[in-house]
């Protein structure tokens, strides 16, 4: 590692693309070491009643900082701090990146352990549903590509980043005999299956973590349709959050092109054609246009 002695870690949590280690804690202040794999995102966000100093010092690598005013680079030796955080800041690692995060209010167990557990649940349920572990990460990468191309605000990017990964966590509450049924669901079974989007929002609400609660709003809407014929609330058009509209397209595309136990996936070209065919009915037409314009980049994911 070169910068931090691993023996000094009090506790370490590993998540996909991210290592988070508590180095020191005392008098309400925590020093937390982060190691990000390339193209991993990390964020700071304002929270009601939270007046902490939040400070990062970059040890190695580079972070691209996105704010509502544009982008800037944070390089090794640079620091960034706010007290308190009043805006949303999204950092994206350019190559493997290490930094120290210092906060004057304890947060380690809250934001690392619970998030890790929810991510593990999400991966587990996708595997039970017949997908591989990569499904969650493909949905996340495609969604972020689309969201950044659309120029979403930083808070929207943060919501999308979490919701895209956790979109189907509500399937945890769906009986396995329904979730894994190889044939067509009965009308009664389908009504139960449709509840997974609301279950997902409820699971994230139960964490009491503000950024997961925020993501839960998107999770609940990701099966709404542009024409109002989706579920659970029959929202239509601009009533649907843009983050949910993005995940709707990306999730459908990935489902179409993924081999399942009961069928082979279609080609990407056929899936692009199907997305185009459903433009303006299932999917937001403006987002479809951007999605199709990104075909070359999508083929690389």
TrEMBL record:
SUPFAM superfamilies: HD-domain/PDEase-like, RmlC-like cupins. InterPro entries: HD/PDEase_dom, HD_GYP_dom, RmlC-like_jellyroll, RmlC_Cupin_sf. Signal peptide: none annotated. PROSITE patterns: HD_GYP. Residues 110-301 form the HD-GYP domain. It comes from the Bacteria. It holds the Pfam family HD_5. Gene3D superfamilies: Hypothetical protein af1432, Jelly Rolls. This is HD-GYP domain-containing protein. It comes from Pseudoneobacillus rhizosphaerae. The lineage of its organism: Bacteria, Bacillati, Bacillota, Bacilli, Bacillales.
